[in-house]
Amino acid sequence: MDKRQCLQCHEPITGRSDKRFCGDKCRNIYNNQQRREHKRNVYKVNKRLLHNYSILKKLNPNYKTNVSRKKLEDAAFSFTYITSIYHTEAGKTYYFVYDQGYIRLENGWCILVRRRE
Predict the structure, then answer these.
(1) Which residues contact 98 (CB under 8 A, 6 or more apart)?
(2) Burial environment of residue 80 by CB neighbours within 10 A (0 to 12, 13 to 18, 19 or more)
(3) What are the respective helix, strand and coil percentages of the chain, to the nearest 5?
(4) Scanning 4, 12, 47, 87, which has its CA 20 to 30 A from the CA of 73?
(5) Residue 76, CA distances (Å) to 18, 52, 73, 92 in order
(6) What is the mean predicted confidence (pLDDT) over 20-36?
(7) Given pLDDT bands bounded at 50, 70 and 90, which one contains residue 1?
(8) No. of H helices and E strands in the chain?
(9) Beta strand pairing status for 93-97 and 64-68?
(10) Can you name the residues that pair with 112 across neighbouring β-strands?
(11) What is the chain's mean pLDDT, rounded?
């Protein structure tokens, strides 16, 4: 006896052995829920990146500025969310959020930079 169940409504499934849903309605509901959860996670990360970008852009109106790490933290900047890392030949590491970036200094300060294209 076939005991397969629909992934959405858990009703018994009949038909092909690889069938996972009882019909198109359940398949669409299930897949839409999966995409919604994925989009929610992407939205959260993009929101955080845009927040970080706006902080860097506001504090760095020119192409290079010194700012204390505390000032960035007070503005709710998250050092976790970046879009790229650039290593120089001199061994320095720049962290970028799109075209706005920073390098951390040992004395509690950061140098904010803007990538010129």
Answers:
(1) 49, 53, 83
(2) exposed
(3) 35, 25, 40
(4) 87
(5) 49, 8, 5, 25
(6) 92
(7) very low
(8) 2, 5
(9) unpaired
(10) 65, 102
(11) 92
Q: Is 21:8 a contact under the CB 8 Å cutoff?
A: yes
d(CA 75, CA 72): 5
Cα atoms in the 13 Å half-sphere on the side-chain side of 58: 10
> How far apart are the C-alpha atoms of 103 and 55, rounded to whole Å?
15
CA distances from 69 to 45, 50, 58, 96, 113 (A): 22, 19, 15, 15, 14
- Residue with token string 């009703």: 11
The SS3 of residue 78 is coil
Burial 24-57 (b: 16+ CB within 10 A, else e): eebbeebeeeeeeeeeeeeeeeeebbebbbebbe
For residue range 2-14, what is the model confidence (pLDDT) as tens digits?
Answer: 589 999 999 999 8
What is the share, in percent, of the chain residues with pLDDT greater than 90? 79
**Which pTM was predicted?**
0.69
